[in-house]
């Protein structure tokens, strides 16, 4: 601390505002290699920086002239020579809130229609890798992003997710806009708790209100179910009336046309399938509107990607029109696209069919929004990424969730082979149960016996489809498994490895996500 304080004085850092110059940061790195020098910055006559400690971080603050460093933050203060006072603060929640007030660049913001990419961080330490990947490109990353299902499985709260990401933003000195996605929210409570934690992007998943049976109901049943949707006849008739005419959309740029004319029966079937889900989404939107005060204070997505059948163009049109009628402004919509979007592996399906369908979905999104098309389970879909970038003309949101965990486990396989083999065996034992809420076609028989793989070849398991999915899907069990003594079996050892080989982890994440960014055609920053 003394050495750093002397450096700050010598370099006149207390008179600066913003990031410290590179020369001062280099000197700090030499004095204490545990300082994240990208974080070092001056504000209001004080200097702040983040320091690494085993399995954690500490905020260091320095002030001159007897003033209190990092006012309000809880921590331990010390008087140093040269009239400098220093304070060491931990990264607890109350200090995290103060950090976001003091440094607004650590606070997520709304992104509206800016091209965006949510990378997802289940363990809470991947964000610096995401930032490293994003830095040079013209889009906004979503840094805190977690679904309620993921938080339940990893034992994290919306506040944890937000705090972890914001400290990482500070660690990296990242000063560009980023969003925070409360993903796959199903209930009013989900919306309220994530809003309170500071999320800015809300993905409503109304799959509990979708009536999947509608696809297979006989006509009389559809009629009955349709009638039951309405309290008064006028609403019912006006809905049918809205879709009684031919609807035609054309793209002025390419001449591409989509014509929608549908018999009343199809309209009734789609209403039976979607109307309750739309009404639920509208309710969630109004709750957010009430909480936020105005529509430009949050980004709003509706996701229907987790459905058994692809979303038809008419279904998309129906959802878009009905939401718009109710005053909902979408920033993005996640249809279920044709083909398969399995976790952690490339697209399975016909790329030409995907392209033709995406062109029409994009046409609807531009015409009735504009809003972004959201690509869920978007990791590793390299064969269709160029199509997504081109067809949507940048009006897309790419969403991945679990591949950062795979990159973490790749580091474990490389650096701690014995631990990896234990986790692998455990994952095999959990797979059947854990796969229930995911759509995957993993063949366990195709995964080689880890005891027969040499240490330095273990990481190649992360280049093969079946072993990727095995590890991808069992993350919650592996991270929260407790032994008979009540202690976590794997979690601490995984975190220790990632802590020790932090740079390997960040670089692995950066190259994985940069490949996505380039393949999606996201341009470099000018
Ligand atoms: Zn999804």
Radius of gyration, Cα only, in angstroms? 25 Å
Q: Count of helical segments?
A: 19
- How is the main sheet built? 8 strands, parallel, barrel
Number of strands: 16
Describe the structure.
The protein is of the alpha/beta class. Among the domains are: 2-90, no CATH class; 404-514, no CATH class. The chain is 44% helix and 16% strand. It contains 19 helices and 16 strands. The chain has helices at 2-10, 22-31, 93-102, 127-134, 148-154, 158-172, 188-196, 219-228, 233-242, 264-292, 313-325, 351-368, 385-392, 403-415, 417-434, 465-473, 475-480, 491-500, 502-519; strands at residues 18-19, 35-43, 46-53, 56-63, 76-80, 84-89, 116-118, 140-147, 179-185, 201-204, 247-250, 257-260, 299-303, 332-334, 372-375, 396-399. It has an eight-stranded parallel β-barrel with strand order 7-8-9-10-13-14-15-16, surrounded by seven helices. Strand 2 and strand 3 (46-53) form a beta hairpin. Helix 7 (188-196) runs parallel beside helix 10 (264-292), helix 14 runs antiparallel to helix 15 and helix 18 (491-500) packs across helix 19 (502-519). The longest helix is centred in the middle third of the chain and has 29 residues, at 264-292. The mean pLDDT is 96. Zinc ion is lined by residues 184, 303, 305-306, 376. Zinc ion (ZN) is lined by residues 184, 303, 305-306, 376.
